[in-house]
Design goal:
By secondary structure, the chain is an all-alpha fold. The protein has 15 helices and no strands.
Amino acid sequence: MRRIRLPKINPAEIPQRVKSSVSEFSQEMKRLRGTNVWIFIMYGLLFDMVNNLWRPFSVRFLERLGGGEFEISLLTALPGAVAAVVLLPGAIIFRKFTDKKRATAVFILISRAALLAVAFIPALPAELRPMLFVIFVAIMNCPDALSQTSLQSFLGTVFHGNLRGQAIALRTKFGQAVIPFVTIAAGLAITFIPNTDEQRMVLYQIFFVMAFLLGVVEVIIFNRLKVPEFAATLPPQAQPEAKSSVFKDLGIIIKDKRFRTFCVPAIIFMFTWQAGWPLVNIYQVINLGASELWFAIFALVSGLTAFFSGTFWQRLLRKRGNTIAFVASASILAGNMFMFPFIPNVQLLAVVMVFTGFSAVGINTALLNGVLEATPDENRLMYLAFYNTAQNISLFLSPFFVYQLLSLIGLTNAMLVVGGLRVLATAFVWFKMRDAKKATAT
């Protein structure tokens, strides 16, 4: 495997790097103001704010509602099951809409409205709360998965070529600048404002309502994205996604070698990545006793690292391509799982979150950019629905696999096994992509 050079950081250079990154952030925002890239970044910031008001604390909130290891595993699994069931039928419905931007906005709004329902769960009988929260989060993922799949397809229309990769990288980078402040503010509020558990639950309810209100603004900003003139002028019958039968489309997708070469390794790696999530959540909450404040600190460290590493991943994507960025970030994620079981306290865990934040930008950008590169303009929505369905089936199955692993060999050994599986999956991605590149060259 080709050696990948990661940036070397001299501690004495950190203040200058911070100053340089802030200056670069300001200059880029001024240059992009008013463009589609700017609007996409603003939408992304609001998307991150909505989700980071509650998602970083969802496991801790579930435990406060009375949930245990099984409910924590289901919190990861059920949303994937719901998305896997609805994505392909949803894509078929989306193909009938001539105004896909408006349809996407409606589903985003429905997803945000579901947060209001979650806000009422603490008022229900105690024995119902844990499972109801898991079910509501799963149901919420139905419109959310549909809107995000449609958004991915819409991005293929709004951005083309290098601009698409730049827009995705910038949206990810700037989002990472906002996430830590939202999460740390929420964590501090939950830790220091309430005096009792009842007051803490009320504050959680307020956060869910605030997330809904921010979601309304998110939809308003999304609607400002401008469809390029060449795409807007296509008559409805010329839109490629309105053609052919569903079964014919699925047959074409499965036989598409370029798409299959990306999709199969990506989903295999996603399974190993997702398998680690419930293990880390259980270790943080049950073994280390992490509070909401510590979850906020984890997000702060991870988010700031992701922000400052954004430029590195952007340059790596541009100079070395998507495969190198994918393998580099995946290798770090694999290494993380070998460290987690030997972390004795939350303080050291916060330090390890530096690696998590660094790799998060790379893997998320490489996955999104990779699938958009691997899908043709024609019928892109069905391709993305197929890919996201496979991804969500993996999301549904991986927690059950891990829960059985946890029951058989314990938490520490389960983490080590998942780490080993990530290494194998990363190697598979590398060899598969390398062989595909050789075949294309010949």
